[in-house]
Amino acid sequence: MGLVFPSIAMASLFLHVQKNNIV
What we know:
By secondary structure, the protein is an all-alpha fold. It is built from 1 helix and no strands. About 0% of the residues are buried. Keywords: Chloroplast, Plastid. InterPro entries: PSI_PsaI.
């Protein structure tokens, strides 16, 4: 369970950066 939160947080951050880079 301790590995699930970091994975989601990392994915969210990655998507946020990708969105900023695309726009």
